[in-house]
Specification:
The chain is an all-alpha fold. The chain has 16 helices and two strands. A two-stranded antiparallel sheet has the order 1-2. It is globular and about 60 Å long. The chain starts with 10 loop residues before the first helix and ends with a helix.
């Protein structure tokens, strides 16, 4: 039975809640060291305040990456506190990337609120993102083993930038013909754009927890495969997900003419000549969605996600990990990827 076929264990929400509670004081303290205006924008991005600084309890994300960092430390046999600095650093970097992504993609909303660039302006949002990145590096550098941690984070960020660059370039490539985006190119992009930071989160917890290089490398591999599976599931939800759950309109990714995995898989079949004009115009996303499903694009995407989940399990099995933390990691990964499918 695979993660996409099962009910996610009840353990996963508990793991997320426990890790958020552990990390939140240190994350709040770190943000408090920023310039007050920049700190307000950061707090707004985390859902802690409204524009102007009034307290808020807006959705702030699941805290996935910080949980992976804490579990990575525990899996390496270190106390959970050893993963807190890693968790703070990856949460800061993740939020930095979201601030810049929203600007690059022109996304006006984030978690059902105006994105930071819409709430404060483009220039201030860029500044806030830069400040969060600098704060993440400072946080790691101050830890024992911080130099190794900074190298781990820098490598992941280099991959993230490459993945984001590929994703932006995909938009200008044709739907069909020799210049089209191939599924293998998409996999490489997703590993870099989404998987690199997930892998870094788990590995960084291990690094600051004193893990041996093979252990931190295995945690990184698990996170990278998770990232590809997570992105592909997100692609499926972006076409067929329930808007009441996803917060996005049905067929939203097709209206935006995004080159997602189900679309690319369908374009590798004989339906391509009929599908490409529908995708190019964006005029009839319902017909495009039906044709993609008929061509096997949805099934191919879910099969690809399952393959990467199998690779996650193989990575976690390849090295000795503390049993309870490894179980928490598996529960969390299952929960994240299955979601509403």
């Amino acid at each position: 039975m695979t993660a996409l076929d099962s009910t996610a264990p009840v353990l996963a929400p508990h793991v997320l809640d426990r890790c958020r509670a552990l990390v939140r004081p240190a994350l709040t303290e770190a943000v408090g060291r920023l310039h007050p205006w920049v700190g307000e924008m950061a707090a707004y991005a985390f859902g802690w305040c409204e524009v102007g600084g009034a307290p808020a309890a807006a959705p702030g994300g699941k805290g996935v990456r910080q949980a992976l960092a804490v579990l990575g430390a525990e899996a390496a046999g270190a106390p959970r506190r050893a993963g807190v600095a890693a968790a703070v650093a990856v949460e800061l970097v993740h939020t930095f990337s979201l601030l810049h992504d929203d600007i690059m993609d022109g996304d006006a909303a984030r978690r059902r609120r105006p994105a930071v660039w819409r709430a404060y302006g483009t220039g201030p949002a860029v500044l806030a993102g830069d400040a969060l990145f600098a704060l993440a590096v400072e946080t790691l550098a101050a830890q024992p083993g911080g130099a190794r941690g900074v190298r781990t984070l820098s490598a992941a960020l280099g991959d993230l930038v490459c993945g984001q660059a590929d994703d932006l370039l995909f938009a200008d490539r044709p739907w069909t013909g020799p210049g089209r985006v191939r599924p293998d190119e998409y996999r490489a992009m997703a590993e870099r754009k989404t998987g690199s930071l997930l892998g870094c989160a788990a590995a960084l917890g291990g690094v600051l927890g004193g893990a041996a290089a093979p252990t931190s490398a295995a945690l990184d591999r698990a996170g990278r495969h998770l990232g590809v599976a997570f992105q592909i599931v997100d692609d499926v939800l972006g076409i067929w997900g329930d808007p009441a759950v996803t917060g996005k309109p049905v067929h939203g990714d097709l209206r935006e003419r995004k080159k997602t995995f189900p679309v690319l898989a369908a374009l590798d079949t004989p339906v391509a000549p009929r599908l490409a004009p529908l995708l190019e115009s964006g005029a009839d996303p319902g017909a495009a969605a039906a044709l993609i499903e008929q061509a096997g694009g949805r099934a191919a995407a879910l099969a690809e996600a399952r393959r990467h989940l199998t690779a996650v399990d193989a990575a976690l099995t390849a090295v000795p990990l503390e049993a309870e933390a490894a179980a928490g990691l598996r529960s969390l990964l299952d929960f994240l990827v299955r979601r509403d499918l």
